[in-house]
Each structure stands twice: as C-alpha cells, then as structure tokens.
User: Fold this.
Amino acid sequence: MASEIKIYGPYPHHGAYRCQLAVDGRRSWLPAADTAERAERIARNLVQKMTEQHQLTIDEALDRYREHLTAKENKPQSIATTFYRLRRFFTDGGLAVAALTSRRCAGYYAALTAKQRADTHRNTLAEARTFCRWLVKQRLLRVSPLDEVEAVGRRRHGKPQLRLDEARCWLRKAEELAEQGKAGAVAAMVALLMGLRSGEIIARTVRDLDDGGHLLWIPDSKTEAGKRAVEVPEELQPYFRERTTGKAPDALIFQAKRNGKHWRDWVAEETRRLCRLAKVPIVCAHSLRGFAATAAIRAGGAPHMVAAALGHVSPTTTLTSYATSGSVEHA
Assistant:
C-alpha cells in the first residue's frame, strides 16, 4: 500500500520559511528557504520524488542496481551470479519497492528454504540483504526489510569428494576423452589436477600459458590471493599445447559455449558427465578443486603452499572447507 503524504505550511522560521511533511501521519520539518514560495517548492519536489520512488518496481530497481555494480567494475560473472540469486529471491518483479515489508521478505526467504539447501539459500539471503541496504542508501526504502529476517539452517564445510580409487577411475575416463580431442574433458582435468575454479578455467587465454607450458597465470580474481601462477602438471601440458598452438595471444583456451552463448556451467556439466561415464558418484566441479587440496595435503604439501596454489587468503580455509578431515594427520 502506498504511503499517505501531506504538506503543511509554509511556516515562518527565524526570518525564513519552511514546510512540514507528513508521511503516514509522521511529521518532519523540511529545510528552510528565504521565501514561502521556495519553501513550498522544496516540499513539492520532495513529494514528487517520493511518489516516483513508491511507484518504482523491483525490476526497475534491479536494473539500477546492475548499473551500480557495473560502475563499480564488478566482474560480469559476479554480477550474473548476483542477479541469478536476486531473481530467485524477489519473485514479484512488478511489485513496488515500497511494498517490500519485513513480512513479505520473510515469506520470500521461507519459500527458498523449502526448496534449497542451507548453503544456497543463505548465500541468496546475503545477496538480497546487500541489495536492500543499497535501496536504503538510495533512499528508495527507509529501512531494510531484511534486517529482521534471520538465516536458518547450518552451512556445510566442503563438498562430497571422490575417493582415491574413484578419482583414478574418473581420470582414466577423462584422459580417454581428452585423447579424442574433447575439450570439456581437458577442462575438468584442470579442475582436478590443478585445483582451479570453473570461472578461472574458462577465462584463461593463450597468453596466460607461460614458461613453455609449465605455468598458467591467473591475473584476475575476486581476491588478491587469487591472482597467482599455477604449475601445469606434466600430464596436462600436451593438451594445453594442442589447444594454444597457432592461436592469438588473447584467444580463449577453452570455448565454453552452448547454442552460441557463453555457458558458465560448462565445466560443471562436463564434470558430471565424466562421473556418469566413469560410473563413480556424481560430484560438482568445485568438489574436484577440493579433491586437489586433499590430494596435495595427503602427499605432504605444506598447508600454506596448497592454499596459495588454490588462491586462498588463509590455509585455514583450505583445511576446514577443502581438504577432507584426516588428510593432514595422514600426511
């Protein structure tokens, strides 16, 4: 429901004039002006702006938010993830922003908790909270309707990983397809053997492959620690040379596309496909990154070195959320 807005005045004030604005019965004084006409103009301009804000829809506000994130130079992939989550949360895009109450937003969140895992819906809630705080800063809302909505469920640390024999079986199948020229198999092998994120894999260019194919540079990342050079395992070097020879320096090593469009889940889908072909438990691409950490720690790799290779700020993240329990003790 739209707020009831009324103007009172102008009233004399220390040789000047000012008006009172009442929103749903709550009055507040507006800035003073040297004439009554200017004081009234200030009030009417404010009412017009508030009326426009009350008519602004969630979809329109999201468009403005996208412009804000783009101006901040957030990465396109990060923006895409943010808006995927926001669209899942705010399902009534045509609703006025002014109608976003705590009760309504609590309902949105409850709907998510009924169909998403705790990690997923808690991440979505965090994105929605950031958006609502931005709405407050833009004076499109007086208070954030999500301040009183509490996250529920317990986050899981780490994702299910393949066992050693399962990983060997998976790798044999990946190598078999890689020998047939299947780029997706090579990309998935990079996740398992080098511990790269899916986004890091599909963003690599020919120029990033350095030192005769022994190093792969990751020059851009969401954290400073993520900007790194990773050693390319010997078994992957021929596949990288095959995919980079004769190409321009700025050409992508992997063309992650579906129906001619960029496909952000390409590595994830290739990982699942290889799991089915190898007849091992189906895991996600990020799980392969965790397996890389587990294997390195079990082999005696120093936690801070493994963390650096994965692009983690602290080895604590590596040990608590990536390497499986017992891998340090085994090493």
Summary: The chain is about 50% helix and 10% strand. Strands lie at 5-13, 16-23, 26-29, 209-210, 215-218, 228-231, 257-258, 261-262. The first helix runs from residue 36 to 55. The chain has a mean pLDDT of 88.
